[in-house]
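Lab notebook, bench 4. Still working through the backlog of constructs that have no structural model yet. Next entry is a single chain of 256 residues. Request: give me the structure tokens for it.
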Amino acid sequence: PEDWVKMQKFDSGQYEAQRRRVYPYDLNKLEDPADTYEEEITPVRCHVFVQSDYEVSLLEKPLEKKPQERYLRLIAQGMQKVNADPNYVENEIMGCPYVEMRTQEEWLTFSHVSNKKNVPKISMDKYQRICQKASPDDCYFILRNHVIQLHHHDPENPSAKWIRSNGHGNPDISFLVHTIVVDPDVPYAGSEEGMTDLHYRWAENHMVDFCQQAQIEAFKIYRLKGGGGNVKDTPPVTTIAATSITCEQKKPGQRR
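Model written out:
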């Protein structure tokens, strides 16, 4: 199906796409949980994404970690729309520990390479030539009006492979990120023309998180001539390092 092909492209590199057979059942009719029950129903083919075997050592560690608040809220909203028990939604979904969402003032940004105040400007043509000549270990992508380069990373890292597959040599991926990672606090833009300052800043915050979780260093190294996106660049603000080397966190009310 077309949607499955699109999802495969979105998750290329980070997850492996597989087809599986599942056995749907009616819990009210299931009296005997024995395996023979599978013989009485027709299996359904489904498409799934599974974690790649990039880091086998992960299997030896606890796989559980706190979910993102954004993710739980999406689940809760979906259940509320189908009139699920409000108490169940509140206690079993939103009641579990989670990683709280940042406020807009806390959103993260990539820092400039070598902590430079400004970075050189280049054209889109030059950016694409750089990507065409890049070695397999080099990876670049565009967010809004900046070219960002991955530093000191493993090219086989699933997150790095995703960035290379979807961003390397391509135009701005802000709308793509906004499309595939839904945030209930950010209105859906609908198209690249509908992207606003809010959408661009949110997309950058998400990509900083994405790189941090994969332990990938990334910096802004160029600014595109003519700008990227359809809105003006964010005014300069004073920033502090959110991690030692990968990104910056904006502090409201201060200037560089």
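Notes after review: Confidence is low (pLDDT under 50) at residues 228-256. The chain has three domains: 1-52, 67-101, 104-250. Flag for follow-up if needed.
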